[in-house]
Amino acid sequence: MDIEDNIFKRYSADFDKLKKYGFKKKHKNFVLEKLFRDNLFKAVITVNADGKVSGTVFDLENDDEYLPLKVETYQGAFVGEVRAAYEELLLDIRDNCFSEKYYIYPQSNRITNLVMEKYGDKPEFLWEKFAGSGVFRNPETKKWYLAILDVDRSKLQAGKMGLIEVADVKLAPEKIENLLKKEHFYPAYHMNKKYWITIILDDSVSDEKIMELIEESHGFSEKKLRKL
Q: What is the CA radius of gyration of the chain?
């Protein structure tokens, strides 16, 4: 993962703050040129209309791009110092011009916002090792009704790779059996496959459909009325 992607992966840009920070509008992008490390290096940082950040660092002494910066195999002391100084600059931009998101991908954040509006529940990030994976639970019963997890696509789709986010919801076994016959639904990742099902949050399934399934899942988390 690129340095920029790693630092900004769960943050969204505030374009007004970018302008105040010193970014200049160029076509559809915002661009900042910044000297750092005793003015020996220049960073050209671009934020596109979708808020994605990219950057190029130039070695001014040699008047050329400083390629070792983004090559992980370069681990010398000098490269490490330049990399640390560049990361410090990016972190300052992030802290001043970006706001934190719960998740990386748009549909994951839309679903999270819809769940918070409907039930008032925020995701709980329970695992330090899996910092991007959160669960939603009914505060009354403490039962989970939704998990949004980041996984490698190969876990669900053989031969495909890359980080994705998925939703796990709890449904009746017969409902799961029927959904698995359809495209875009998968056996539950990291959950009991009899009672849970997985959906990739890449807009292959509509927000409306996912919220409909979450409503069913939430029903399983509610207190059952005691029979008289």
A: 22
Beta partners for 149? 166
Domain limits, the chain: 3-100, 106-221
Question: What pLDDT is stored for residue 225 in this prediction?
Answer: 57
Beta-sheet strands, E only, within the chain? 11-13, 24-26, 29-36, 41-47, 53-59, 64-65, 98-100, 134-137, 144-152, 163-170, 185-187, 196-200
How many Cα neighbours within 13 Å face the side chain of 51? 20
- Tell me if the domain spanning 106-221 has CATH number 1.20.120.450: no
- pLDDT on residue 223: 85
pLDDT value for 66: 95
Per-residue pLDDT reduced to its tens digit, 166-190? 999 999 999 999 999 999 999 999 8
DSSP string, 189-217: SSS-TTTEEEEESSSSS-HHHHHHHHHHH
